[in-house]
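Tip: read the tokens left to right.
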């Protein structure tokens, strides 16, 4: 006897039928959010492939572009991207090797580093941003005018609720649902 090919919606329905009181709509919305995030990440990854950038490397360049008047530190980027020092080093090394960013000691303390976006990094970011923004336009373009604002507001509230739940890795959320754990790179 072979098992039927069930969609994730059908599986959620079966799960909820066997567990009275299970929050079907919340489960379905969460699964849709996870699936959508994965599809968006995949589409952005494909858009970044010609630039030999991962999403995380793109975010590093985006964040550095906002800090040109005040150089960033690796620890500030770790906090903004919810990354460990080891992960950040793995992101920064290839970007520096390609000449897309610079690292130099900060003042007298040679252990503390300043990061800055190079001219080559700005050029790559400008081109990569156009590709990423085209993905955003295609994905978000399916919504009617004004719908994206409602989605953003709802996602901010959901993030705030998840962050307050104790299991989220994001920072403290304010009353407006914004969190210090969410990167705020313009156009990223």
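Filled-in amino acids:
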């Amino acid at each position: 006897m072979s098992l039927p090919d069930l969609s994730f919606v059908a599986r959620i329905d079966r799960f909820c039928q066997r567990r009275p009181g299970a929050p079907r709509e919340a489960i379905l919305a969460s699964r849709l959010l996870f699936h959508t995030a994965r599809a968006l990440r995949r589409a952005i990854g494909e858009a970044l492939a010609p630039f030999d950038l991962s999403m995380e490397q793109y975010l590093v360049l985006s964040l550095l572009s906002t800090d040109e008047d005040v150089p960033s530190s690796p620890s500030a980027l770790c906090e903004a991207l919810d990354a460990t020092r080891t992960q950040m080093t793995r992101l920064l090394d290839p970007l520096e090797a390609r000449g897309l960013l610079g690292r130099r000691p900060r003042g007298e303390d040679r252990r503390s580093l300043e990061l800055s976006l190079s001219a080559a990094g700005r050029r790559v970011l400008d081109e990569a941003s156009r590709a990423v923004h085209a993905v955003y336009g295609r994905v978000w373009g399916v919504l009617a005018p004004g719908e994206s604002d409602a989605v953003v507001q709802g996602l901010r509230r959901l993030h705030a609720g998840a962050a307050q739940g104790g299991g989220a890795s994001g920072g403290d959320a304010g009353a407006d649902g914004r969190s210090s754990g969410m990167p705020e790179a313009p156009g990223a």
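Residues 24-48 form the longest helix (25 residues). Strands lie at 101-106, 109-117.
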